[in-house]
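Title: Comparing notes on inverse folding

I've been comparing how different people in this forum approach sequence design from structure. To keep things fair, I'm posting one structure and asking everyone to reply with a full sequence. Here's the target:
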């Protein structure tokens, strides 16, 4: 089956200029040619009417299964979590996100259901359970710590569901990482320091010893993939960089030393400017005053770190929203694009949400579930994951953020929206 998009300009995901007035030929699920193409060679023609073809958006930091507030999730059955997740993933695709990396949640089943057509949603690169130490950011027994510690490691619904996992010491960490790989993780997520939204672990706490982190990195790299770490502070980032962690989630409180190391080692940074500001403005419900204070600190620090990212020319930046909660929280997913444009510039925002994520995901090598084509680019041989926008995204991301201007959403060669 060949589809031809005619009368289009192309933003290829990397270049700061459009390829003007071309056609894009799609065979099944791949882009096979871009240029001047005879329409009679195609089975179906989509007239883009001078709109811009750009890569489908990619979010490198989502938690699709975290579909309610933490206390609600603590009493949710797995079936309810699955049903909510299916809704959230469908809405994500309909916003224009054709791929996401889930960094904490038992999403393999959902991914498989989407890939085989039983559910609608983006491609998912699952991390499976986010792994932390006892009394770490994903030790979700804290609500009733006394009783739950007595009952062992798994006595929390969120831990039983495979959302979070506790492992201590080299041996347990190796096993926990290998278990997630066995369950289909594309990359490994660990918690390498205190959290902002959690009730009990102060931001400045260091979580995981150097040796434990090295164990996680060893088990991941033996399987061809990498470790992404939830991390906020410079001391935690220095330790993680030494251990070989290649992706820093949040990376909020940086100094010059760590910014330079991040640049030199090519470590990826996945900041969340919009969610940070939302939380800091107290627009997302948090458990208590302490968590509000922590998130306010993170929100303010994040913009200082952005200055260091610019100062040291850190280019390994990926789009990540960290939307957690009900479907109306996930609705803010698009706002990050505007927040990045405001913090950096238009092309940085567009690259972060497209080709940069595609490059980041290539670090999963043979754990990468989508190896047939490139992700996040409009080039020959890329997956036919694309949007047709009424407007020029390079002149500002507003047209990408607007539902009306997003005329076509295509994933894997299949059209999910067409209002042309
Ligand atoms: Zn997160």
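Reply #1:
Here's my take.
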């Amino acid at each position: 089956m060949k589809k031809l998009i005619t009368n289009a300009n192309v933003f290829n995901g990397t270049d700061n200029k459009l390829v003007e007035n071309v056609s894009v030929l799609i065979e099944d699920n791949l882009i096979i040619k871009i240029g001047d193409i005879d329409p009679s060679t195609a089975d179906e023609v989509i007239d883009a009417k001078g709109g811009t073809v750009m890569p489908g958006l990619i979010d490198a930091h989502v938690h699709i299964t975290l579909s309610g507030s933490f206390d609600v999730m603590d009493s949710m059955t797995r079936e309810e979590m699955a049903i909510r997740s299916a809704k959230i993933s469908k809405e994500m695709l309909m916003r224009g996100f054709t791929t996401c990396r889930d960094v904490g949640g038992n999403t393999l089943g959902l991914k498989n259901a989407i890939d085989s057509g039983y559910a609608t949603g983006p491609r998912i690169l699952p991390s499976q359970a986010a792994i932390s130490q006892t009394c770490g950011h994903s030790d979700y027994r804290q609500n009733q710590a006394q009783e739950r510690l007595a009952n062992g490691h798994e006595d929390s619904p969120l831990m039983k569901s495979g959302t979070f996992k506790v492992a201590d010491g080299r041996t347990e960490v190796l096993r926990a990482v290998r278990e997630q790989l066995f369950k289909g993780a594309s990359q490994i997520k660990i918690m390498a320091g205190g959290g902002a939204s959690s009730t009990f672990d102060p931001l400045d706490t260091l979580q995981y010893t150097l040796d434990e982190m090295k164990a996680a990195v060893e088990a991941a790299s033996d399987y061809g993939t990498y470790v992404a770490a939830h991390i906020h502070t410079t001391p935690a980032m220095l330790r993680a960089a030494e251990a070989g962690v290649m992706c820093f989630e949040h990376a909020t409180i940086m100094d010059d030393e760590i910014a330079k190391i991040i640049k030199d080692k090519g470590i990826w940074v996945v900041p969340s400017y919009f969610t940070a500001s939302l939380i800091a403005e107290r627009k997302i419900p948090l458990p208590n005053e302490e968590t509000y204070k922590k998130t306010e600190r993170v929100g303010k620090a994040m913009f200082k770190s952005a200055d260091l990212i610019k100062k040291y020319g850190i280019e390994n930046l990926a789009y990540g929203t960290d939307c957690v909660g009900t479907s109306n929280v996930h609705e803010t997913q698009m706002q990050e694009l505007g927040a990045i444009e405001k913090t950096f510039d238009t092309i940085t925002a567009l690259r972060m949400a497209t080709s940069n994520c595609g490059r980041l995901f290539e670090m999963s090598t043979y754990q990468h579930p989508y190896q047939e084509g490139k992700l996040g680019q409009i080039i020959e041989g890329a997956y036919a994951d694309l949007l047709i926008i009424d407007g020029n995204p390079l002149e500002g991301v507003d047209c990408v953020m607007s539902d009306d201007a997003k005329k076509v959403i295509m994933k894997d060669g299949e059209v999910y929206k067409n209002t042309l």
